[in-house]
Automatic annotation (TrEMBL):
GO biological process, one term: methylation
A GO term, aspect molecular function: methyltransferase activity
Protein name according to UniProt: SAM-dependent methyltransferase
Keyword line: Methyltransferase, Transferase
A Pfam entry, by short name: Methyltransf_25
Database matches in CDD domains: AdoMet_MTases
Methyltransferase domain boundaries: 48-148
Domain of life: Bacteria
Length: 218
């Protein structure tokens, strides 16, 4: 519980001011988010949960792409949730979208949203900021419906980028408490074996971004 509170406070400190210009700046380097959303393909009247919903930017796009779905989002930053509520209301999605403050590694969707399972769950550039990110992915898989899928997009291993660029990027990310998870795809494969699910992987932009999908059998 203490670690949860401290991480939430850290995220509030990081984003207290950044949330006002977050989306305007992140579009230049949080690559792969839109291809990930385009690949969700939920059932027509399905449910979509975003873990670490931030400003609500991705939920708005998902809501527009899949107009008959129900939308849900959790975040550990009160500051980001405040912005997400505003953005979702401005997009006219208030009747379809439900947001809650929660720790991604240990949350109860029944208490939060009145439902236990989701057709699609996605995590966009958040595993690189969550200390217990492997536990978060396992928790997410446990909340998938049969045929449901977890989609994760985040920084890749950057191995095809020039060494100087890679080193500079790692140092810059460190300032913002971001740690690329070079073992993301291996962890996804391990979780798939444990849960009898299937994995897919996309490597984008010379390894700058990865998309990992863990899919339950129907």
């Amino acid at each position: 519980m203490f670690a949860k509170i401290e991480h939430g406070r850290l995220m509030d400190r990081v984003y207290r001011h950044q949330r006002h210009f977050y989306d305007a700046t992140r579009k230049y380097y949080l690559l792969g988010r839109d291809p990930m959303i385009a690949g969700l393909n939920p059932p027509e009247r399905g449910s979509i949960l975003e873990i670490g919903c931030g400003t609500g930017r991705n939920l708005v796009l998902a809501g527009e792409a899949y107009p008959k779905t129900s939308l849900y989002g959790i975040d550990i930053s009160h500051e980001m949730l405040a912005t997400a509520h505003k953005n979702i209301a401005a997009a006219g999605l208030g009747g379809r979208a439900h947001l809650a403050y929660a720790d991604a590694a240990d949350f109860n969707p029944v208490e939060l949203f009145g439902r236990r399972k989701f057709d699609r769950i996605f995590i966009s550039y958040a595993v690189s900021m969550i200390p217990q990110w492997e536990a978060v992915m396992r928790e997410a898989v446990s909340h998938l419906t049969p045929g449901g899928a977890l989609h994760v997009v985040d920084f890749g291993d950057l191995k095809d980028l020039p060494r100087f660029t890679r080193t500079a990027l790692y140092k810059w990310l460190e300032w913002y408490h971001v740690t690329p998870r070079n073992e993301l795809l291996d962890v996804a494969d391990k979780i798939a074996v444990e849960t009898e699910t299937e994995t897919e992987a996309q490597r984008l932009y010379g390894g700058f971004a990865w998309i990992s999908v863990i899919r339950r059998k129907a």
